[in-house]
């Protein structure tokens, strides 16, 4: 088991918050500093690369629900799935994305 410092936990929480903002398209209240803007751009790029590496079902649900903001019923109709399958698949896809992104951070800092 890997020791996770407080800084790493904060970074993980920030990445989770960014996922929520990206999926909900929340507006930023104030203009970010240049460093923050670059960091957000890098994180967004990492997120899209991680989405591209998901299984096809996970990728489809993440794009339809998280990015294009379709409802569960609309996604179910598009993909020919039940409502519950959409919910479960989206939950699993977001969980997989989180693990992938956290693992990527750990690798970039030489922790894995």
Account of the protein in words:
The longest helix is centred in the C-terminal third of the chain and has 26 residues, at 83-108. 11% of the residues are buried. Helix 1 crosses helix 5 (83-108). It is built from 5 helices and no strands. With 112 residues, the protein is mainly α. The protein has helices spanning 6-24, 34-52, 56-67, 72-79, 83-108. It has a domain at 44-112: Winged helix-like DNA-binding domain superfamily/Winged helix DNA-binding domain (Arc Repressor Mutant, subunit A), CATH 1.10.10.10.
What is the 3D form? elongated
Annotation field: number of helices: 5
The CATH superfamily of the domain at 44-112 is known as Winged helix-like DNA-binding domain superfamily/Winged helix DNA-binding domain
Which spans of ≥5 residues are poorly predicted at pLDDT below 50?
A: none
Task: Tell me what the CATH architecture of the domain at 44-112 is.
Answer: Orthogonal Bundle
- Radius of gyration using CA atoms only: 15 Å
Q: What proportion strand? A: under 5%
Portion in helices: over 70%
CATH topology of the domain at 44-112, by name, is: Arc Repressor Mutant, subunit A
Averaged pLDDT: 76
Q: What order do the helices and strands follow?
A: HHHHH
């Amino acid at each position: 088991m890997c020791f996770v410092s407080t800084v790493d936990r904060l970074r993980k929480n920030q990445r989770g918050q960014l996922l929520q903002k990206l999926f909900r398209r929340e507006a930023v209240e104030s203009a970010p500093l240049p460093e923050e803007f670059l960091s957000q751009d890098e994180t967004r790029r990492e997120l899209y690369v991680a989405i591209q590496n998901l299984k096809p079902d996970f990728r489809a649900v993440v794009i339809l629900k998280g990015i294009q903001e379709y409802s569960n019923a609309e996604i179910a109709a598009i993909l020919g799935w039940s409502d519950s399958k959409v919910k479960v698949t989206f939950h699993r896809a977001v969980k997989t994305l989180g693990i992938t992104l956290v693992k990527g951070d750990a690798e970039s800092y030489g922790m894995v």
